Amino acid sequence: MTPTRDSSAPPGEGSAAAQLLPMRASLEFDDFYAANVRSVTAQIYAYTGDRAEAEDLVAEAFCRALARWRKVREYENPTAWVRRVAWNLATSHLRRRSVVQRFLNRQRETHEQAPDGDRVDLQRALAGIGAHHRKAVILRYMAGLTVAEIAEQEGVAEATVRSWLTRGKAALAGRLTVQDDMEQR
Amino acid sequence: MSTPDENLFEEAFAEFAHTAELMVDPVDSAVIHGRVRRRRATKGALAAALAALIVAVPAAWWLQESNGDEVDPSPAEETTDETTSRETTPAEDGGAGSNSVPEGQETGLDQPVLPTFGDLVGAEIELPEFFPGEGSLNDICPTGPATISDAAGAGYGDGSVRLLKLVQTTLEEGGPVEAVALFGCAPGDGMLTQAVSVAGDGDGGWEVTEEIALGTLDSFPLIDIAPAAVTGVLLLVPEPHGTDHQGPLDYEIFRYRTGAELEDVTDSAYKWGIADLAVEVEKTDNGDGTWTAAVTITNTGDHESQGFALTACADAALTVEEVDGLPGCTEDYRVVEEYAALEAGESVTEEWTVDPAPFDEWSGDAQAGGAYLEVRVRTPMYGVDGFAFDYDGSNDYGNMSLIVDDVT
Protein backbone atom coordinates (compact mmCIF):
# COMPACT_ATOMS: atom_id res chain seq x y z
CA MET A 1 0.00 0.00 0.00
CA THR A 2 1.54 3.32 -0.94
CA PRO A 3 0.34 6.79 -0.05
CA THR A 4 -0.68 9.37 -2.55
CA ARG A 5 -1.03 13.03 -1.77
CA ASP A 6 -4.31 14.06 -3.28
CA SER A 7 -3.20 17.25 -4.97
CA SER A 8 -4.71 16.73 -8.38
CA ALA A 9 -7.74 18.73 -9.30
CA PRO A 10 -10.99 16.83 -9.65
CA PRO A 11 -12.36 16.34 -13.16
CA GLY A 12 -13.82 19.50 -14.52
CA GLU A 13 -12.03 21.76 -12.05
CA GLY A 14 -12.12 25.32 -13.31
CA SER A 15 -15.23 24.92 -15.39
CA ALA A 16 -18.45 26.60 -14.44
CA ALA A 17 -19.95 23.26 -13.56
CA ALA A 18 -17.07 22.59 -11.20
CA GLN A 19 -17.92 25.68 -9.19
CA LEU A 20 -21.10 23.88 -8.18
CA LEU A 21 -19.24 20.85 -6.84
CA PRO A 22 -18.65 22.13 -3.31
CA MET A 23 -22.27 23.14 -2.99
CA ARG A 24 -23.42 19.80 -4.36
CA ALA A 25 -21.12 17.96 -1.96
CA SER A 26 -22.41 20.05 0.88
CA LEU A 27 -26.01 19.20 0.07
CA GLU A 28 -25.04 15.59 -0.31
CA PHE A 29 -23.48 15.64 3.15
CA ASP A 30 -26.62 17.23 4.57
CA ASP A 31 -28.70 14.39 3.11
CA PHE A 32 -26.26 11.84 4.52
CA TYR A 33 -26.39 13.54 7.89
CA ALA A 34 -30.18 13.67 7.97
CA ALA A 35 -30.46 10.02 6.99
CA ASN A 36 -28.10 8.70 9.63
CA VAL A 37 -27.67 11.03 12.57
CA ARG A 38 -30.66 9.88 14.59
CA SER A 39 -30.03 6.17 14.28
CA VAL A 40 -26.32 6.47 15.08
CA THR A 41 -27.04 8.81 18.01
CA ALA A 42 -29.65 6.38 19.35
CA GLN A 43 -27.11 3.54 19.24
CA ILE A 44 -24.45 5.57 21.03
CA TYR A 45 -27.06 6.72 23.55
CA ALA A 46 -27.93 3.09 24.25
CA TYR A 47 -24.24 2.38 24.71
CA THR A 48 -23.28 5.33 26.92
CA GLY A 49 -26.62 5.85 28.68
CA ASP A 50 -26.17 9.61 28.42
CA ARG A 51 -28.13 11.39 25.73
CA ALA A 52 -26.22 14.67 25.67
CA GLU A 53 -22.94 12.82 25.63
CA ALA A 54 -24.13 10.67 22.72
CA GLU A 55 -25.21 13.74 20.77
CA ASP A 56 -21.81 15.36 21.28
CA LEU A 57 -19.88 12.25 20.28
CA VAL A 58 -21.95 11.69 17.16
CA ALA A 59 -21.64 15.36 16.19
CA GLU A 60 -17.87 14.98 16.46
CA ALA A 61 -17.97 11.89 14.26
CA PHE A 62 -19.94 13.74 11.60
CA CYS A 63 -17.54 16.71 11.84
CA ARG A 64 -14.72 14.34 11.00
CA ALA A 65 -16.72 12.92 8.14
CA LEU A 66 -17.42 16.40 6.75
CA ALA A 67 -13.77 17.43 7.11
CA ARG A 68 -12.82 14.64 4.73
CA TRP A 69 -16.12 14.33 2.93
CA ARG A 70 -14.56 14.23 -0.51
CA LYS A 71 -12.92 10.95 0.48
CA VAL A 72 -15.62 9.54 2.72
CA ARG A 73 -18.37 9.99 0.14
CA GLU A 74 -16.42 7.73 -2.22
CA TYR A 75 -16.32 4.88 0.25
CA GLU A 76 -18.49 1.89 -0.34
CA ASN A 77 -20.32 2.51 2.91
CA PRO A 78 -19.87 6.03 4.35
CA THR A 79 -22.40 5.20 7.04
CA ALA A 80 -20.20 2.38 8.31
CA TRP A 81 -17.26 4.79 8.44
CA VAL A 82 -19.04 7.42 10.49
CA ARG A 83 -20.62 4.80 12.74
CA ARG A 84 -17.23 3.27 13.42
CA VAL A 85 -15.75 6.66 14.27
CA ALA A 86 -18.66 7.39 16.59
CA TRP A 87 -18.29 4.03 18.33
CA ASN A 88 -14.55 4.46 18.70
CA LEU A 89 -15.06 7.89 20.20
CA ALA A 90 -17.69 6.48 22.56
CA THR A 91 -15.44 3.63 23.63
CA SER A 92 -12.55 5.98 24.37
CA HIS A 93 -14.92 8.30 26.19
CA LEU A 94 -16.42 5.52 28.30
CA ARG A 95 -12.99 4.29 29.25
CA ARG A 96 -12.03 7.73 30.50
CA ARG A 97 -15.35 8.08 32.27
CA SER A 98 -15.06 4.71 33.97
CA VAL A 99 -11.87 5.79 35.68
CA VAL A 100 -13.67 8.81 37.12
CA GLN A 101 -16.75 6.75 37.93
CA ARG A 102 -14.79 4.15 39.86
CA PHE A 103 -13.38 6.94 41.97
CA LEU A 104 -16.79 8.55 42.52
CA ASN A 105 -18.39 5.23 43.40
CA ARG A 106 -15.94 4.84 46.22
CA GLN A 107 -16.82 8.30 47.49
CA ARG A 108 -20.59 8.21 47.61
CA GLU A 109 -23.68 6.05 47.51
CA THR A 110 -25.63 6.07 44.28
CA HIS A 111 -29.38 6.46 44.32
CA GLU A 112 -30.88 5.04 41.15
CA GLN A 113 -34.40 5.82 40.09
CA ALA A 114 -36.89 3.02 39.66
CA PRO A 115 -37.67 2.06 36.08
CA ASP A 116 -40.80 3.57 34.64
CA GLY A 117 -41.35 1.44 31.58
CA ASP A 118 -40.05 -1.21 29.24
CA ARG A 119 -37.68 1.15 27.50
CA VAL A 120 -36.08 2.15 30.75
CA ASP A 121 -35.88 -1.51 31.78
CA LEU A 122 -33.95 -2.35 28.67
CA GLN A 123 -31.79 0.72 29.00
CA ARG A 124 -30.96 -0.09 32.62
CA ALA A 125 -30.31 -3.71 31.76
CA LEU A 126 -27.97 -2.63 28.98
CA ALA A 127 -26.09 -0.37 31.37
CA GLY A 128 -25.48 -3.33 33.66
CA ILE A 129 -23.75 -5.65 31.22
CA GLY A 130 -20.15 -5.61 30.00
CA ALA A 131 -19.10 -3.04 27.44
CA HIS A 132 -18.20 -5.57 24.75
CA HIS A 133 -21.43 -7.46 25.23
CA ARG A 134 -23.45 -4.24 25.23
CA LYS A 135 -21.77 -3.02 22.07
CA ALA A 136 -22.36 -6.30 20.26
CA VAL A 137 -26.03 -6.45 21.21
CA ILE A 138 -26.67 -2.83 20.19
CA LEU A 139 -24.88 -3.21 16.88
CA ARG A 140 -26.75 -6.41 16.16
CA TYR A 141 -30.26 -5.42 17.19
CA MET A 142 -30.29 -1.63 16.88
CA ALA A 143 -27.90 -1.05 13.99
CA GLY A 144 -28.93 -4.30 12.31
CA LEU A 145 -25.36 -5.37 11.57
CA THR A 146 -24.50 -8.99 10.87
CA VAL A 147 -21.98 -10.88 12.98
CA ALA A 148 -19.44 -10.48 10.18
CA GLU A 149 -20.00 -6.73 10.00
CA ILE A 150 -19.62 -6.32 13.75
CA ALA A 151 -16.45 -8.40 13.65
CA GLU A 152 -15.05 -6.17 10.92
CA GLN A 153 -15.95 -2.97 12.74
CA GLU A 154 -14.45 -4.15 16.01
CA GLY A 155 -11.46 -5.89 14.46
CA VAL A 156 -12.15 -9.22 16.17
CA ALA A 157 -13.00 -12.73 15.05
CA GLU A 158 -16.61 -13.60 14.24
CA ALA A 159 -16.49 -16.26 16.95
CA THR A 160 -15.67 -13.54 19.46
CA VAL A 161 -18.71 -11.55 18.35
CA ARG A 162 -20.92 -14.62 18.61
CA SER A 163 -19.62 -15.17 22.12
CA TRP A 164 -20.31 -11.52 23.04
CA LEU A 165 -23.84 -11.78 21.64
CA THR A 166 -24.64 -15.02 23.43
CA ARG A 167 -23.36 -13.74 26.73
CA GLY A 168 -24.82 -10.29 26.25
CA LYS A 169 -28.29 -11.65 25.51
CA ALA A 170 -28.16 -14.05 28.43
CA ALA A 171 -27.01 -11.28 30.77
CA LEU A 172 -29.73 -8.94 29.50
CA ALA A 173 -32.39 -11.60 29.89
CA GLY A 174 -31.22 -12.30 33.42
CA ARG A 175 -31.34 -8.65 34.37
CA LEU A 176 -34.76 -8.08 32.85
CA THR A 177 -36.10 -11.12 34.71
CA VAL A 178 -34.70 -9.87 38.00
CA GLN A 179 -36.27 -6.46 37.44
CA ASP A 180 -39.64 -8.04 36.63
CA ASP A 181 -39.48 -10.10 39.80
CA MET A 182 -38.65 -7.07 41.89
CA GLU A 183 -41.52 -5.08 40.44
CA GLN A 184 -44.01 -7.89 41.05
CA ARG A 185 -43.11 -8.05 44.74
CA MET B 1 -26.80 -19.62 30.75
CA SER B 2 -30.17 -19.47 29.05
CA THR B 3 -30.55 -17.66 25.77
CA PRO B 4 -33.75 -15.71 25.27
CA ASP B 5 -35.97 -15.91 22.23
CA GLU B 6 -34.54 -14.14 19.21
CA ASN B 7 -37.83 -12.65 18.07
CA LEU B 8 -38.50 -11.14 21.48
CA PHE B 9 -35.11 -9.52 21.36
CA GLU B 10 -35.65 -8.07 17.92
CA GLU B 11 -39.06 -6.69 18.88
CA ALA B 12 -37.82 -5.18 22.12
CA PHE B 13 -34.86 -3.53 20.46
CA ALA B 14 -36.89 -2.28 17.51
CA GLU B 15 -39.19 -0.50 19.93
CA PHE B 16 -36.27 0.75 21.97
CA ALA B 17 -34.46 2.03 18.86
CA HIS B 18 -37.57 3.82 17.65
CA THR B 19 -38.11 5.53 20.98
CA ALA B 20 -34.45 6.44 21.34
CA GLU B 21 -34.35 7.96 17.85
CA LEU B 22 -37.28 10.16 18.77
CA MET B 23 -35.70 11.14 22.07
CA VAL B 24 -32.33 12.26 20.79
CA ASP B 25 -31.94 15.81 19.64
CA PRO B 26 -28.98 16.04 17.27
CA VAL B 27 -27.69 19.41 16.17
CA ASP B 28 -28.63 20.79 12.78
CA SER B 29 -26.19 20.01 9.97
CA ALA B 30 -25.43 23.73 9.74
CA VAL B 31 -23.77 23.42 13.15
CA ILE B 32 -21.53 20.66 11.81
CA HIS B 33 -20.57 22.82 8.82
CA GLY B 34 -19.80 25.71 11.16
CA ARG B 35 -17.57 23.64 13.43
CA VAL B 36 -15.57 22.28 10.52
CA ARG B 37 -15.15 25.76 9.01
CA ARG B 38 -13.85 27.09 12.32
CA ARG B 39 -11.43 24.20 12.70
CA ARG B 40 -10.02 24.80 9.23
CA ALA B 41 -9.60 28.49 9.97
CA THR B 42 -7.74 27.85 13.21
CA LYS B 43 -5.59 25.00 11.96
CA GLY B 44 -2.71 27.26 10.97
CA ALA B 45 -2.80 29.09 14.25
CA LEU B 46 -2.83 25.82 16.16
CA ALA B 47 0.19 24.55 14.30
CA ALA B 48 2.10 27.69 15.21
CA ALA B 49 1.13 27.34 18.84
CA LEU B 50 2.03 23.66 19.02
CA ALA B 51 5.57 24.21 20.22
CA ALA B 52 4.35 26.26 23.16
CA LEU B 53 1.70 23.68 24.02
CA ILE B 54 4.21 20.86 23.95
CA VAL B 55 6.15 22.59 26.70
CA ALA B 56 3.32 24.12 28.65
CA VAL B 57 0.38 21.75 28.73
CA PRO B 58 1.38 18.31 29.96
CA ALA B 59 2.78 19.59 33.22
CA ALA B 60 1.67 16.50 35.10
CA TRP B 61 3.62 14.36 32.70
CA TRP B 62 6.67 16.50 32.99
CA LEU B 63 6.54 16.15 36.73
CA GLN B 64 6.05 12.43 36.45
CA GLU B 65 8.93 11.89 34.11
CA SER B 66 11.23 14.07 36.14
CA ASN B 67 10.10 13.30 39.68
CA GLY B 68 9.11 9.68 39.56
CA ASP B 69 5.42 10.31 40.25
CA GLU B 70 3.62 6.96 40.22
CA VAL B 71 0.09 8.19 39.58
CA ASP B 72 0.04 6.59 36.14
CA PRO B 73 -2.51 8.56 34.17
CA SER B 74 -2.79 7.39 30.62
CA PRO B 75 -0.47 9.16 28.17
CA ALA B 76 -2.83 8.63 25.29
CA GLU B 77 -5.57 10.48 27.07
CA GLU B 78 -3.50 13.14 28.71
CA THR B 79 -0.90 14.16 26.20
CA THR B 80 -1.47 12.84 22.71
CA ASP B 81 -3.63 15.74 21.66
CA GLU B 82 -0.94 18.16 22.67
CA THR B 83 2.14 16.33 21.52
CA THR B 84 0.87 15.43 18.09
CA SER B 85 -0.83 17.42 15.41
CA ARG B 86 -3.26 14.74 14.33
CA GLU B 87 -6.89 15.10 15.28
CA THR B 88 -7.47 11.43 16.06
CA THR B 89 -5.76 8.09 16.32
CA PRO B 90 -6.06 5.85 13.26
CA ALA B 91 -8.38 3.60 15.23
CA GLU B 92 -10.66 6.48 16.13
CA ASP B 93 -10.84 7.48 12.53
CA GLY B 94 -12.25 4.21 11.43
CA GLY B 95 -9.30 1.88 11.74
CA ALA B 96 -6.56 1.04 9.34
CA GLY B 97 -8.79 -0.45 6.69
CA SER B 98 -9.45 0.77 3.24
CA ASN B 99 -11.69 3.50 4.49
CA SER B 100 -9.10 5.26 6.62
CA VAL B 101 -7.46 8.41 5.39
CA PRO B 102 -3.88 8.90 6.55
CA GLU B 103 -3.49 12.27 8.21
CA GLY B 104 -1.56 14.74 6.12
CA GLN B 105 -2.54 13.23 2.80
CA GLU B 106 -5.39 15.56 2.23
CA THR B 107 -5.21 18.39 -0.25
CA GLY B 108 -3.49 21.58 0.76
CA LEU B 109 -1.59 20.48 3.86
CA ASP B 110 2.01 21.63 3.73
CA GLN B 111 3.27 19.10 6.28
CA PRO B 112 5.26 15.86 6.18
CA VAL B 113 3.06 12.97 5.13
CA LEU B 114 2.88 10.67 8.13
CA PRO B 115 1.86 7.05 7.67
CA THR B 116 -0.78 5.12 9.56
CA PHE B 117 -0.18 1.53 10.60
CA GLY B 118 -2.22 0.30 7.68
CA ASP B 119 -0.24 2.41 5.21
CA LEU B 120 3.02 0.71 6.12
CA VAL B 121 1.78 -2.88 6.11
CA GLY B 122 2.47 -4.18 2.62
CA ALA B 123 4.68 -1.21 1.70
CA GLU B 124 8.28 -1.51 0.55
CA ILE B 125 10.74 0.61 2.52
CA GLU B 126 14.52 0.91 2.54
CA LEU B 127 15.43 0.22 6.17
CA PRO B 128 18.77 0.23 7.98
CA GLU B 129 20.33 -3.20 8.22
CA PHE B 130 19.46 -5.38 11.19
CA PHE B 131 23.08 -6.63 11.18
CA PRO B 132 25.11 -3.50 10.33
CA GLY B 133 28.31 -4.30 8.49
CA GLU B 134 27.67 -8.03 8.55
CA GLY B 135 27.16 -8.36 4.79
CA SER B 136 25.22 -11.40 3.65
CA LEU B 137 24.01 -12.10 7.18
CA ASN B 138 21.46 -9.41 6.43
CA ASP B 139 19.89 -11.62 3.79
CA ILE B 140 17.90 -13.37 6.51
CA CYS B 141 16.12 -10.11 7.32
CA PRO B 142 16.05 -8.27 3.99
CA THR B 143 15.92 -4.50 4.32
CA GLY B 144 16.86 -3.18 0.90
CA PRO B 145 13.93 -2.83 0.55
CA ALA B 146 11.92 -4.57 3.25
CA THR B 147 8.38 -5.60 2.46
CA ILE B 148 6.52 -4.87 5.66
CA SER B 149 4.25 -7.49 7.22
CA ASP B 150 1.60 -7.06 9.88
CA ALA B 151 2.74 -7.79 13.42
CA ALA B 152 -0.53 -9.55 14.10
CA GLY B 153 0.14 -12.25 11.53
CA ALA B 154 1.54 -15.68 12.25
CA GLY B 155 4.84 -17.02 11.03
CA TYR B 156 7.42 -15.72 13.45
CA GLY B 157 10.80 -17.16 12.70
CA ASP B 158 10.37 -16.71 8.97
CA GLY B 159 12.66 -13.69 8.65
CA SER B 160 9.98 -11.32 7.41
CA VAL B 161 10.12 -7.72 8.59
CA ARG B 162 7.09 -6.84 10.67
CA LEU B 163 5.65 -3.54 11.81
CA LEU B 164 5.28 -3.94 15.56
CA LYS B 165 4.14 -0.45 16.46
CA LEU B 166 3.73 3.06 15.14
CA VAL B 167 3.51 6.15 17.35
CA GLN B 168 3.48 9.87 16.69
CA THR B 169 5.60 12.26 18.68
CA THR B 170 8.01 15.16 18.35
CA LEU B 171 11.66 14.22 18.45
CA GLU B 172 13.06 17.66 19.18
CA GLU B 173 11.74 20.64 21.02
CA GLY B 174 9.65 22.74 18.69
CA GLY B 175 10.09 20.22 15.91
CA PRO B 176 7.39 18.71 13.75
CA VAL B 177 5.34 15.71 14.73
CA GLU B 178 6.92 12.55 13.37
CA ALA B 179 5.86 8.94 12.98
CA VAL B 180 8.18 6.55 14.78
CA ALA B 181 7.91 2.91 13.74
CA LEU B 182 9.19 -0.16 15.54
CA PHE B 183 10.06 -2.87 13.06
CA GLY B 184 11.00 -6.41 14.02
CA CYS B 185 12.47 -9.42 12.35
CA ALA B 186 12.65 -12.88 13.89
CA PRO B 187 15.01 -15.08 11.89
CA GLY B 188 14.91 -17.62 14.70
CA ASP B 189 13.59 -17.59 18.23
CA GLY B 190 14.71 -14.07 19.08
CA MET B 191 13.33 -10.81 17.74
CA LEU B 192 15.62 -8.18 16.27
CA THR B 193 14.12 -4.71 16.27
CA GLN B 194 14.77 -1.20 15.05
CA ALA B 195 13.03 2.11 15.72
CA VAL B 196 13.06 4.65 12.90
CA SER B 197 11.18 7.77 11.93
CA VAL B 198 9.16 7.31 8.73
CA ALA B 199 7.54 9.86 6.42
CA GLY B 200 6.29 10.13 2.86
CA ASP B 201 9.08 10.35 0.30
CA GLY B 202 7.20 12.83 -1.87
CA ASP B 203 6.81 10.25 -4.59
CA GLY B 204 4.04 8.10 -3.21
CA GLY B 205 6.28 5.88 -1.08
CA TRP B 206 7.72 5.94 2.41
CA GLU B 207 11.25 6.59 3.61
CA VAL B 208 13.25 6.49 6.81
CA THR B 209 14.04 10.03 7.88
CA GLU B 210 15.89 9.26 11.11
CA GLU B 211 17.46 6.14 12.63
CA ILE B 212 16.60 6.05 16.31
CA ALA B 213 17.71 2.74 17.80
CA LEU B 214 18.69 -0.77 16.80
CA GLY B 215 17.71 -3.61 19.08
CA THR B 216 20.13 -6.48 19.55
CA LEU B 217 19.49 -9.78 21.27
CA ASP B 218 22.55 -9.80 23.49
CA SER B 219 22.90 -6.25 24.76
CA PHE B 220 19.98 -4.00 23.85
CA PRO B 221 16.81 -6.08 23.27
CA LEU B 222 14.53 -3.14 22.42
CA ILE B 223 10.99 -4.47 22.75
CA ASP B 224 8.56 -1.53 22.76
CA ILE B 225 8.27 2.20 22.12
CA ALA B 226 5.96 4.95 23.38
CA PRO B 227 5.68 8.71 22.91
CA ALA B 228 7.59 10.59 25.61
CA ALA B 229 5.66 12.92 27.84
CA VAL B 230 6.99 16.10 26.29
CA THR B 231 9.48 15.51 23.49
CA GLY B 232 11.07 12.34 22.22
CA VAL B 233 10.28 8.67 22.10
CA LEU B 234 10.69 6.21 24.97
CA LEU B 235 12.46 2.90 24.36
CA LEU B 236 11.64 -0.07 26.59
CA VAL B 237 14.57 -2.44 26.93
CA PRO B 238 14.31 -5.57 29.10
CA GLU B 239 17.37 -7.38 30.35
CA PRO B 240 18.86 -9.69 27.70
CA HIS B 241 17.02 -12.97 27.85
CA GLY B 242 16.42 -16.19 25.96
CA THR B 243 13.07 -17.58 24.97
CA ASP B 244 13.37 -20.10 27.81
CA HIS B 245 13.68 -17.37 30.44
CA GLN B 246 11.54 -17.98 33.52
CA GLY B 247 10.29 -15.34 35.93
CA PRO B 248 10.04 -11.56 35.74
CA LEU B 249 12.36 -9.56 33.54
CA ASP B 250 14.09 -6.44 34.73
CA TYR B 251 13.89 -3.55 32.28
CA GLU B 252 15.11 -0.07 31.54
CA ILE B 253 13.43 2.85 29.79
CA PHE B 254 15.43 5.27 27.68
CA ARG B 255 14.36 8.51 26.09
CA TYR B 256 15.56 9.37 22.59
CA ARG B 257 15.64 12.93 21.35
CA THR B 258 17.22 14.06 18.11
CA GLY B 259 20.83 15.07 18.61
CA ALA B 260 20.91 14.12 22.29
CA GLU B 261 22.42 11.19 24.14
CA LEU B 262 20.01 8.42 25.13
CA GLU B 263 18.76 9.26 28.60
CA ASP B 264 17.87 6.60 31.18
CA VAL B 265 14.43 7.61 32.48
CA THR B 266 13.53 4.26 34.08
CA ASP B 267 12.81 5.77 37.47
CA SER B 268 10.74 8.67 36.25
CA ALA B 269 8.95 7.55 33.08
CA TYR B 270 5.31 6.59 33.17
CA LYS B 271 4.80 2.84 33.37
CA TRP B 272 1.20 2.53 32.22
CA GLY B 273 0.95 -0.76 30.35
CA ILE B 274 3.97 -2.36 32.01
CA ALA B 275 2.19 -5.12 33.85
CA ASP B 276 2.22 -8.81 34.68
CA LEU B 277 -0.89 -10.69 33.62
CA ALA B 278 -0.97 -14.09 35.32
CA VAL B 279 -3.34 -16.90 34.36
CA GLU B 280 -4.70 -19.66 36.58
CA VAL B 281 -7.07 -22.44 35.60
CA GLU B 282 -9.02 -24.31 38.27
CA LYS B 283 -11.07 -27.37 37.41
CA THR B 284 -14.10 -28.53 39.35
CA ASP B 285 -16.07 -31.76 38.91
CA ASN B 286 -19.73 -30.89 38.36
CA GLY B 287 -20.78 -34.44 39.20
CA ASP B 288 -22.80 -34.89 36.03
CA GLY B 289 -19.96 -35.90 33.76
CA THR B 290 -19.01 -32.29 33.00
CA TRP B 291 -16.32 -30.11 34.54
CA THR B 292 -16.05 -26.41 35.19
CA ALA B 293 -12.87 -24.65 34.14
CA ALA B 294 -12.48 -21.36 36.01
CA VAL B 295 -9.94 -19.21 34.18
CA THR B 296 -8.70 -16.28 36.24
CA ILE B 297 -6.45 -13.56 34.85
CA THR B 298 -4.89 -11.26 37.44
CA ASN B 299 -2.76 -8.20 36.94
CA THR B 300 -0.09 -8.98 39.50
CA GLY B 301 2.03 -6.02 38.43
CA ASP B 302 2.19 -2.54 39.91
CA HIS B 303 0.62 -0.64 37.02
CA GLU B 304 -2.52 -0.72 34.89
CA SER B 305 -2.25 -3.11 31.97
CA GLN B 306 -3.29 -2.53 28.39
CA GLY B 307 -6.31 -4.31 26.96
CA PHE B 308 -5.60 -7.95 26.23
CA ALA B 309 -7.02 -11.07 24.65
CA LEU B 310 -7.60 -14.51 26.11
CA THR B 311 -6.77 -17.27 23.64
CA ALA B 312 -7.54 -20.95 24.01
CA CYS B 313 -7.23 -24.35 22.42
CA ALA B 314 -8.49 -27.77 23.45
CA ASP B 315 -8.08 -31.44 22.70
CA ALA B 316 -10.72 -32.78 20.33
CA ALA B 317 -12.01 -34.95 23.19
CA LEU B 318 -13.19 -31.85 25.08
CA THR B 319 -16.17 -29.69 24.20
CA VAL B 320 -16.15 -26.30 25.88
CA GLU B 321 -19.77 -25.23 25.80
CA GLU B 322 -19.27 -21.45 25.98
CA VAL B 323 -16.53 -21.33 23.37
CA ASP B 324 -17.41 -24.06 20.94
CA GLY B 325 -15.07 -24.98 18.12
CA LEU B 326 -11.70 -24.42 19.76
CA PRO B 327 -8.76 -25.52 17.61
CA GLY B 328 -6.56 -28.37 18.73
CA CYS B 329 -3.50 -27.26 20.67
CA THR B 330 -1.19 -28.67 18.02
CA GLU B 331 -2.82 -26.33 15.49
CA ASP B 332 -3.41 -22.91 16.95
CA TYR B 333 -4.86 -20.79 19.72
CA ARG B 334 -8.06 -18.87 19.10
CA VAL B 335 -9.06 -15.55 20.65
CA VAL B 336 -12.10 -16.33 22.79
CA GLU B 337 -12.51 -13.10 24.71
CA GLU B 338 -11.07 -9.61 24.70
CA TYR B 339 -10.78 -7.46 27.79
CA ALA B 340 -10.22 -3.86 28.65
CA ALA B 341 -7.29 -2.94 30.88
CA LEU B 342 -6.92 -4.42 34.35
CA GLU B 343 -5.77 -2.21 37.17
CA ALA B 344 -2.95 -3.42 39.39
CA GLY B 345 -4.31 -6.24 41.55
CA GLU B 346 -7.54 -6.52 39.55
CA SER B 347 -8.63 -9.86 38.14
CA VAL B 348 -11.28 -11.27 35.85
CA THR B 349 -12.65 -14.83 35.81
CA GLU B 350 -14.32 -16.85 33.07
CA GLU B 351 -16.16 -20.06 33.90
CA TRP B 352 -16.55 -22.61 31.16
CA THR B 353 -18.31 -25.96 31.17
CA VAL B 354 -16.10 -28.72 29.78
CA ASP B 355 -17.87 -31.78 28.46
CA PRO B 356 -15.52 -34.70 27.72
CA ALA B 357 -16.33 -37.29 25.06
CA PRO B 358 -16.53 -40.92 26.19
CA PHE B 359 -13.02 -42.13 26.99
CA ASP B 360 -12.94 -44.76 24.25
CA GLU B 361 -13.41 -41.99 21.67
CA TRP B 362 -10.32 -40.12 22.81
CA SER B 363 -7.21 -40.15 20.63
CA GLY B 364 -4.38 -42.39 21.66
CA ASP B 365 -2.33 -39.40 22.80
CA ALA B 366 -5.17 -38.07 24.94
CA GLN B 367 -5.82 -41.48 26.47
CA ALA B 368 -2.16 -41.80 27.35
CA GLY B 369 -1.33 -38.26 28.43
CA GLY B 370 -4.63 -36.58 29.18
CA ALA B 371 -6.96 -34.27 27.25
CA TYR B 372 -5.95 -30.64 27.69
CA LEU B 373 -7.69 -27.29 27.63
CA GLU B 374 -5.06 -24.56 27.40
CA VAL B 375 -5.36 -20.79 27.71
CA ARG B 376 -2.92 -17.98 27.14
CA VAL B 377 -3.12 -14.17 27.40
CA ARG B 378 -1.83 -11.94 24.65
CA THR B 379 -1.35 -8.20 24.75
CA PRO B 380 -1.20 -6.67 21.29
CA MET B 381 1.20 -3.75 21.44
CA TYR B 382 0.61 -2.18 18.08
CA GLY B 383 -2.65 -0.43 18.85
CA VAL B 384 -1.69 1.59 21.91
CA ASP B 385 0.10 4.85 22.57
CA GLY B 386 1.75 3.66 25.78
CA PHE B 387 3.85 0.61 26.49
CA ALA B 388 2.30 -2.85 26.29
CA PHE B 389 4.78 -5.06 28.09
CA ASP B 390 4.13 -8.13 30.22
CA TYR B 391 7.42 -8.53 32.04
CA ASP B 392 6.76 -12.08 33.17
CA GLY B 393 5.74 -14.28 30.27
CA SER B 394 6.14 -17.49 32.25
CA ASN B 395 2.72 -17.12 33.91
CA ASP B 396 0.78 -16.06 30.81
CA TYR B 397 -0.30 -19.65 30.29
CA GLY B 398 -2.59 -22.05 32.13
CA ASN B 399 -4.27 -25.36 31.48
CA MET B 400 -6.52 -28.06 32.86
CA SER B 401 -6.42 -31.69 31.86
CA LEU B 402 -8.72 -34.64 32.23
CA ILE B 403 -7.27 -38.14 32.50
CA VAL B 404 -8.70 -41.61 32.52
CA ASP B 405 -9.50 -41.48 36.25
CA ASP B 406 -11.59 -38.36 35.74
CA VAL B 407 -13.94 -39.84 33.17
CA THR B 408 -14.30 -43.49 34.06
TrEMBL record, chain A:
Q: Is Transcription regulation a UniProt keyword of this protein?
A: yes
Which controlled-vocabulary keywords does the entry list? DNA-binding, Sigma factor, Transcription, Transcription regulation
Q: Which residues form the RNA polymerase sigma factor 70 region 4 type domain?
A: 121-172
The record places domain RNA polymerase sigma-70 region at: 33-98
Q: Does the keyword Nucleus apply?
A: no
What the record says about family reads:
Belongs to the sigma-70 factor family. ECF subfamily.
Q: Which PANTHER family match?
A: ECF RNA POLYMERASE SIGMA FACTOR SIGM (PTHR43133:SF50), RNA POLYMERASE ECF-TYPE SIGMA FACTO (PTHR43133)
Query: What is the name of the protein in this document?
Result: Sigma-70 family RNA polymerase sigma factor
Which species does this protein come from?
Glycomyces terrestris
Q: What is the lineage of its organism?
A: Bacteria, Bacillati, Actinomycetota, Actinomycetes, Glycomycetales
From TrEMBL, chain B:
From the record, give the transmembrane residue ranges. Answer: 45-63
Sorted keywords for this record are: Membrane, Transmembrane, Transmembrane helix
Organism's domain of life?
Bacteria
Give the span(s) annotated as Disordered. 66-115
Q: What is this protein called?
A: Uncharacterized protein
Q: Which organism is it from?
A: Glycomyces terrestris
